[in-house]
Design goal:
The structure is a homodimer. Chain A is mainly alpha-helical. Helices cover 66% and strands 0% of the residues of chain A. The first copy, chain A, binds a DNA duplex through α4.
Chain lengths: 228, 228
DNA sequence: GCAGATGCGCAAGTAATACTATTATATTTG
DNA sequence: CAAATATAATAGTATTACTTGCGCATCTGC
């Protein structure tokens, strides 16, 4: 199984980095360790100096790969969306029924994450935690418009679009497919975060499962109901 | 009209500040100017030094009111939730029908914000923009649990609870009222932000109105549908 | 009307952050 | 084997996020 996937690599927009971390051993160690460190410290406390100490390289070396820590975060989050899209495509392969396709799509978007052995240097479980607690900071910045022009958020849009297509199959006149899907993706993260840290803002218990049900209910109820 | 409200003041948790900015002229100027500056620069570029320069006071003076800029942001966001709760209560006064109450509640949570002359030193329109683009950063921090224990997010919970009560009136068995309302509040912010900066993630056009409709549809469809 | 507390301004200082630059050395490539 | 490239080692800068201490003005209670 592994040997099949080890050929693949996830391609994110090349304006995110100065030098592709995927193409060198050091680059991979930067990614591997940054996931561990950001998960541990949060992006605010994370610094290139600390990362350098962990991998035994000076911070100036890391600056040759990424302009700053924000771009590194953009890279990690983009990688995640790319990876999720590929998981989505696999999950939908050979499934005919649009209803089942949509259901499976929501499962991928809102379900729990497991380690993917195809990418040895990436801990998807930790990366998922980073996405939950840090991904919004990627676009909630004064630089959004510039970064958007460079196409840095393209992978996220692709993912949303793939699910929008399924909704259109089921209900071509539905008015807000993009809003619905982006609400599901972001909402699922929030609800999981709330369950862990601010439980009075949610009805979801920490042991998951309900998140998927809640958003499935939301999507199908909106699509079916607005159909008449 | 104004004289009636000028008696009131918004009470946030007193652990947010070191010295209540509401009780001095300088404190009010700190709040007034910080809203303008944060709206302009974003929280990352905003510093107490810049704020000090704007109000003609050294940064050390501002540190006597707030521990750091994060706490100042928590103050502003808390103030906003408090203010929104009071607007909600007014909007629901004397309305009997639970359906109409819920509809009005969603209007308050997702609708556009206008200047409230009751609070002269606060520009609610700018504050609303800050809430949209910075409020998530208040809880997406490694310090959430500590700050939650201090009760810093109490005002947000109160607001959510008020709407949960209406949902329970309409449908006592509904499983996820908290999740639904927190999704509506956060989702409305996101969709407005996307409309402005990442339009391909939403179907909402910049000139609002549709946000309210989308989330009303969501809430009513979920409550009605799950009723049978 | 004065003692004491409080609030603010002023000046200076510190540690950490977010970089940038320079040079030397090791490795790869042509 | 020469040239290009990648990394290490070291140092340096501007800014940020604070902290400290002192002096002056004002307000508060007696």
């Amino acid at each position: 199984m592994r040997s099949l996937f080890s050929q693949f690599s996830i391609k994110v927009n090349d304006k995110i980095y100065l030098k592709n971390p995927d193409e060198s051993e050091l680059g991979k160690r930067i990614i591997e360790s940054s996931i561990i460190l950001i998960d541990e410290l949060g992006i605010e406390q994370f610094t290139f100096r600390k990362l350098g100490q962990r991998i035994g390289s000076p911070e100036s070396t890391i600056y040759r790969y990424f302009e700053n820590k924000h771009k590194l975060l953009v890279y990690l989050i983009s990688w995640y969306w790319c990876w999720l899209e590929y998981r989505l495509v696999f999950s939908l392969a050979n499934i005919e029924s649009p209803t089942e396709r949509l259901e499976r799509a929501i499962d991928v978007l809102t379900g729990d994450i497991e380690q993917d052995d195809a990418f040895e240097h990436i801990d998807e479980v930790k990366l998922n935690r980073i996405v939950i607690s840090e991904s919004a900071k990627v676009y909630l910045t004064k630089a959004v418009d510039d970064e958007n022009k460079l196409g840095l958020f393209g992978v996220y849009k692709n993912l949303v679009d793939r699910v929008v297509v399924i909704i259109r199959e089921l209900h071509p006149e539905f008015q807000h497919p993009h809003s619905l899907i982006s609400t599901v993706i972001e909402g699922a993260h929030q609800q999981k975060y709330f369950a862990q840290h601010l439980p009075s803002l949610t009805d979801i218990t920490e042991d998951g499962g309900t998140v998927q049900d809640f958003f499935k209910q939301m999507v199908f109820c909106m699509i079916v109901r607005s159909k008449r």
